[in-house]
Amino acid sequence: MNNAELKIGCQTFTWEMLGKGWRGGPDDLVRAIADGGYAGLEITDTMIGYYALRPADFARTLAVAGLTLVSFAFGSGSGFTVAEKIASDLEAARRWVDFVAHFPGAMVSMGSATVVSDGRRDEKFAIAAECYNRATEIGRSASVAVAVHPSSHHNTLLFTRNDYDRLFALLDPRVGWVPDTGHILRGGQQVDDTLSTHRDRIRYVHLKDVDAGGIWVMLGEGVCNVPAVISAVREAPLFTGWIVVEEESDHAGTDPAAAVRKNRETLRRLGF
């Protein structure tokens, strides 16, 4: 068993869902997540705000709040599947790897490969794999691990178990994976089997819940077997110990801070 200490983090997408309705900044996110009882956070390129060019300042802000940067997540308008955009996608990867290098142990998470143009699906898997593989090499040069985060959102290339298997077969073994329980369930997959099959790629996990119809619900109110998921990922040899809670339900969209507090309370009731 992997003996990494279990740590609970929070993803900032809960606020990102508000779009233009969110008028706060990264300091507000840090305060809300710390007040919610979390030990760390994963933030995105959309939400990092004025700290994008000030990693040392962000590190100090997190330290004052008692938080750790788990990972920095970014996506691309190319969906990482457009050959002509690989150079710019890798430049973005290099930028965020350099940022994350200021935070020992933190990772870079690249968003799901997504279909944004015409063309054969086989070609898109190959392009995405090239992008993820080359970004991982960039990360290695700075001692920053890089992982892919599949999603079930519109036009994702990574929805079903077969999609996961096809991409992972093309990836260098050093490319990590951030499994997301909600997206796995929405893709009709068996969470335990998918986690077990690709366990060697798991670095940390996004924990969220859906109902039987795939609609987002608050953690503990849907079909995700939280204790089973945590038990499974703890068996992964490269698991860092981080369980990152992400919330996409309608409730979270109305009051993100309250939603993430409630999710932390739910995990405490479950013994985590």
TrEMBL record:
Residues forming the Xylose isomerase-like TIM barrel domain are 30-269
SUPFAM superfamilies in the record: Xylose isomerase-like
Which keywords belong to this entry? Isomerase
Q: Name one GO molecular function term.
A: isomerase activity
Q: Give any Pfam family that matches.
A: AP_endonuc_2
Q: Entry's InterPro entries? A: IolE/XylAMocC-like, Xyl_isomerase-like_sf, Xyl_isomerase-like_TIM-brl
Protein name per UniProt: Sugar phosphate isomerase/epimerase
Q: What is the lineage of its organism?
A: Bacteria, Pseudomonadati, Pseudomonadota, Alphaproteobacteria, Hyphomicrobiales
